[in-house]
Amino acid sequence: MLAALGFATIAVLLLLTMTKRASVLVALILLPVLAALIGGFAGDLGELILGGLSKVAPTGIMIAFAVLYFSLMVDAGLFDPLIRGLLRVARGDPLRITVATAVLTLCVALDGDGASTFLITVSALLPVYQRLGMNPLVLSGVVCLGAGVMNMVPWGGPTVRAMAALKLDSSDVFTPVLPAMGVGVAWVLVASYLLGRRERNRLATLSPQGPAPDEGKDERDDREPAAATTVTAATEPEPSRHATPATADGKRQALRAPGDGPGTVRVPPLPRTWLNVFNLLLTVTLVVCLIQEVMPLPVLFVLGFAIAALVNHPTWEQQQALLDRHAKNVVLVTTMIFAAGVLTGILTGTRMLDEMAETLVSVVPDSFGSHMPVAVAVSGMPLSLVFTPDAYYFGVLPVLAETAQGFGTDPAEVARAAILGQMTTGFPLSPLTASTFILVGMSGVSLGEHQRFIFRWAFATTLVMTAAALLTGAFSL
């Protein structure tokens, strides 16, 4: 009963979001609540939802301040040299931009954290896509592919869970699939080339001349300051950089911020060059601290934003204008994360996920025992849409590994197969992971559009790596 209810909830959720019959926010909240009521958990509903919200609260806090931080940095022009450099190298060619997106994602994703990967890459590259008129689904899709493959690293969530669940170490699980991962990286570059070529042809059809930016022109003159957060955000130029009140003789007074009255302390603005250097050093320090886990991620972004806001916008009026300008983006992303907490809280607290895992294992035919690694590898990516990482790796994987062992297959082979797709290539598409909503929210696309656009490419990544794993002997057929 619970298993059927859980599968039905996930199926209806995917159907509603992919067909745009309901917003993701509404579906994530109301569908699991309805399932809990049908399952007889009305009395525990408040506790279940609160438990789910509590688990995603740190992520929600981190994302709120991370969006504010990177939005501030885009306003300040931190990424402008990178944008101009990419445009100069790409020469206005969407194909080169798309391949550069894949390369940047593969590098940034080495830390194994999907949330920080999406925050950094989308913040840096979305203005480029907007400048050239490229489809933001290409951005979210290519970032999805690159981050998915790199999530296989030993310090990434899926591999760590696989090793912990089966009591294995990195040499048992990750090292044998390293060649397959290398093939996966190569496939991501090929896929980005194909997607980029398709996007170049699309833009050429719309405009025979093609989008060719003026390399000698500052890109910030032609784009919105908040371009790094969402394409739907309507923003205005920052008052403190474009308007100052006039003095009695008609001259502009640079030291007074808009809204300052008589007697207000005037704060002289920092020279632009030194401010850019400070922002760069602060961002590099923040990224290093994120990778080294010096402090919890939410704390780092809270402190980083506060420091950046104080230095870049020293007056109260400027700080309020900053918050007003980017509040919509923060709300759009964080509400999705908390809504996902409602879904996972109910599915986990009612033991629906546990029952789903047991049901899945029970329907595996005994004849599949000797072919279990291949079956696990191929099914892992689609099952990312159904199971959370914990539910799969701690609930499903041990039973599958034990079943395979009964047929003479090493459990380590099942673990290797699992990390080729389950919450690796599949996690940036799953509604069960909060980081997915960071990717789609900051790219300005809907979850359903993102899934329809990139699912087959992500699944192909798993198939390519599975074939490579078979050829290199990571597991047997």
TrEMBL record:
Keywords: Membrane, Transmembrane, Transmembrane helix, Transport. Coiled coil: none annotated. Residues 14-421 form the Citrate transporter-like domain. The chain crosses the membrane at residues 31-53, 137-157, 177-196, 280-310, 330-353, 414-441, 453-475. It comes from the Bacteria. Residues 214-225 have a biased composition (Basic and acidic residues). Residues 204-265 are annotated as: Disordered. InterPro entries: Cit_transptr-like_dom, Citrate_transporter, Glcn_transporter. Its main location: membrane. Residues 226-237 have a biased composition (Low complexity). It is found in: Membrane. It is a multi-pass membrane protein. This is Citrate:proton symporter.
